[in-house]
Amino acid sequence: MTKFTKIISSGSYLPKKVLTNKELESRVDTSDEWITERTGIKERRVADDSETSVDLAYNAAIDAIKKSGINKNDIGAIFLATCTPERKFPSTAVLLQNKLDIKDAFSFDINAACTGFVYALDIAKKYIESGQIKYALVVGTEKITSLLDWTDRNTCVLFGDGSGAMILAASEKPGIISSTIGSDGSYKDLLTVNTDLEYIEMKGSDVFKTAVNTLGKLAKHTLEDNNVGNDELDWLVPHQANERIILAIAKKINLPREKIIITVNKHGNTSAASIPLAFDEANSKGIFKQGDMIMLEAFGAGFTWGSILFRY
Ligand code: COA
């Protein structure tokens, strides 16, 4: 049985169209100053009508596969996190598998809203460590702007589209050290898209408070349970929803700003795509070194939450 799982590459894709805070000022009663101060967001990307979450995922997946150096046909499974599937069924994962022309693999979607990518990594790790597959393609992809009410200033300024991917491989050495996921459905109405409305509805300040509390505790426990001092943590790559949430969590674990990857200013909240997008942006710049200790953590509708601690 394989003992460990390693992240061997990452890839990402952003749609071309940039939507700035300034442009949003002409749509709703808001200002660049308000959005920047409350969220850290300056701009986000918006997919055009012809692009679906599968198209975004395809570009990110191709990028990750190319950088991994493996043959795409070595991929045993595709775990795809999204809450904006192209179709109700077949799954976005299966549509991606078809577009990539991968035959000998199984694929399925995971919907844990903004925590989806961490859930997908947790599942991929378990399949790899059971010996069932050697390589997994893990993708987060969202056309989340398709769920926005562009007249609601409480939500329309916060989100953006994009996709990120990783290739995971069986390994003799760690790799992923710990993986934790959780959920509590009693918060179902604080952040939701109801099937009859089809728009994001959110109680922003309640989500904010619960996110900071939950993620603060999760980050602390993830480090403590694995005997990793905060000075041994090289990088935190958090879900990118709001810069104030990210900095509040970093404060709880005494992590300096220089060790945190922040991309929310350019991407907005891209839901399940946010962590792999942030990771790949930093990774492409050569920021992560082999052996670095990195923590990913996410929080989303449900509520759902999760963390991954690994050596790169
Ligand atoms: N522009 C200008 N004013 C806005 C606005 C906008 N885009 N959106 C909301 N406001 C107003 C509100 O209407 C409210 O006005 P009022 O006091 O007259 O009623 C005021 O700003 C304060 O609203 P509040 O919700 O208390 O602000 P906040 O400091 O909590 O910031 C969020 C709002 C949404 C930025 C913040 O709550 C947040 O980030 N929440 C978490 C969101 C999140 O992470 N969601 C995804 C989780 S995965």
How would you explain this protein's 3D organization?
- This protein has 312 residues and is an alpha/beta fold.
- The chain has two domains: 168 residues, Peroxisomal Thiolase, Chain A, domain 1 (3-Layer(aba) Sandwich), CATH 3.40.47.10; 136 residues, Thiolase/Chalcone synthase (Peroxisomal Thiolase, Chain A, domain 1, 3-Layer(aba) Sandwich).
- The chain has ten helices and 13 strands.
- The strands form four sheets. Strands 1-7-6-4-5 form a five-stranded mixed β-sheet, sandwiched between helices. A four-stranded mixed β-sheet has the order 8-13-12-11, with helices on both faces. It has a two-stranded antiparallel sheet with strand order 2-3.
- Helix 3 crosses helix 4 and helix 7 packs parallel to helix 8.
- The radius of gyration is 18 Å and the shape is globular.
- The mean pLDDT is 97.
- The protein binds coenzyme A.
- Coenzyme A binds next to helix 2, helix 6, helix 7 and strand 12.
Topology:
Layout: E1 4-13, E2 18-20, H1 21-25, H2 32-39, E3 43-45, H3 53-68, E4 75-81, H4 92-100, E5 106-110, H5 116-129, E6 135-142, H6 153-156, E7 162-171, E8 176-183, E9 191-193, E10 200-202, H7 204-225, E11 235-238, H8 243-252, H9 264-267, H10 274-284, E12 293-300, E13 304-311
Parallel strand pairs: 4-5, 4-6, 11-12
Antiparallel strand pairs: 1-7, 2-3, 6-7, 8-13, 9-10, 12-13
Bound molecules: coenzyme A (COA).
Residues 30, 34-35, 38-39, 114, 153-154, 157, 191, 202, 204-205, 207-208, 211, 241-242, 245, 269, 299-300 line the site of coenzyme A.
